[in-house]
Amino acid sequence: MEPEQVIALYRDHATSEQFHSEFKTDLDLERLTSGKFATNALVMALGTFAYNILRAIGQMELLGQFAPIRHPAKRRIRTVIQELIYLAARLISTGRRFILRFSRHCPVFAAFQEVYGQLVPAG
Length: 123
Description:
The chain is mainly alpha-helical. It has one domain.
């Protein structure tokens, strides 16, 4: 290969390392749970599924109307978890439905509602 091609391929090395680091640390998958390959393969597959869902939710929130003003870089998985998953809410059972009741002053409720509206069709 030409030196320019090698440099171009190596340029995305740091991005790959960042995704690998997020997968391990933010999803708490630094140590695999079992000594069995099949169990570890299942844990990694489920971790990959969760990672991809959180990444998609982060992109929806980042591009949404109610997205907080931040650095234009891509959103880390840890930030998505802290802002949209760790929300305090009360689970209310009424009739045959469950309702999440958020605080009246929840600062990120508008962003949560926008992402939820994109993921779950009204009905």
